[in-house]
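In this section we turn from sequence analysis to structure. A common task in structural bioinformatics is to predict how a protein folds when a small molecule is present, because the ligand can shape the pocket around it. The inputs are simple: the amino acid sequence and a SMILES string for the ligand, here zinc ion. Study the lines below before reading on.
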Amino acid sequence: MTGIFIILGVALAFAYVCLVIWAVSRVQSSHECKKCATSIHLERIGRPAFVKKLVPFLPEKYYRCRHCYTTFFLTASASRRETRRKVSS
Ligand SMILES: [Zn+2]
């Protein structure tokens, strides 16, 4: 009976590690889509609920490219053109 819980625990840990690797691989510092190499199609969307709960240490900025539907996390230190535009106007 204990063996089931060990297997279950190992499976859960493995799933969590996979989720963290998936999420960390999507963190980037440049404000542009890697696939299209452009920033004009990007839109900010909310992080999925399971990411908020399971990987809370990830950057809050979550973007999706409207052109190719690639999603990625943007680090807080990344320079953004939008911020600069707001300052100048
Ligand atoms: Zn794209």
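The chain has a mean pLDDT of 87. As an exercise, try to locate the residues that line the zinc ion site and compare them with your own expectations.
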